[in-house]
Please model this.
Amino acid sequence: MDAGTRIERLTSAAVEEAATALGRHLQPTPLQYSPAFTHKVGCHVHLKIESAQPIRTFKVRGALNKLLAMHPEERSVGVITASAGNHGLGVAYAARVFAVPATVCVPENANQLKVEAIKRLGARVVHFGRSYQEAFQEAARMQSESGATLVHAYDDPDVIAGQGGVAVELIAQLPDFDTVLVPVGGGGLISGMAIHLKAQRPSVKVVGVEPRGADAMTRSLAAGRPLTLSKVSTIADGLAASAPGRLTLEIARRFVDDMIRVEESEMLRAIRLLFEWEHLLAEPSGAAAMAALLYHYPADPGERVVVVLSGANVTETVMVQALAAR
Model:
């Protein structure tokens, strides 16, 4: 199936269908108004708290939707994936729901907090390579030998539709808003959300946020073609994709209004402020959108901005750095 055919499958209706199916397994995550951040930036700030998911990240949505879409016989053979951590957690959780075997290939320097959580969910963890791309190549090799289904972290229609459920919930929780800031790694989350939002609320501005040291989507959109970074350098392991997906890049080209790049220090300060002002934990990738709002996004007075807090699997080391950040 080529990229064009796969994009045609991705409609607002498909996202709504996925959200309905996932509603039998997952509770909606909270949307919280923040007086503190509203006062700080001068616009109305709402926090979409995906860290309330059972694995503390939105990634459970796409992984679970992928397994729901699979035929039972296909599921029974098992699933395999590559992940920097959070997607692996999602696949491990979904595999446990259906009681099927799961293997997660992670880079050798993967976030140990996430690796241990993947193991606790019952998945097999394979350490391979120094990057997500190298881990993915190993997962693809293992899949060809085992016959298990390879669950891509972001460039898959079922995964994208599942992630788009964030937008379905958001519209139900807050019918009127102006802008949504979304963290971007490979682009699955912003793709699913943008497809639904632009169909249901065309005036809403969809803005993606990347670390400056992992800005593959921003560069690829500017170039008009997929680019692969020669080096990725960021503390936000959940956003450390060296290239966007071909599918997610095309969706972003059609539906994403703007991209913002944030610095490492800005993500750390955002983590600290989320903890101090809202008593919310965020990992660097989870705090990236807040960093964009605090330091880069030119909000208008009275603008209603939704910040997606995508995950809270933060290590002790990063949390110590964040609490010291000023």
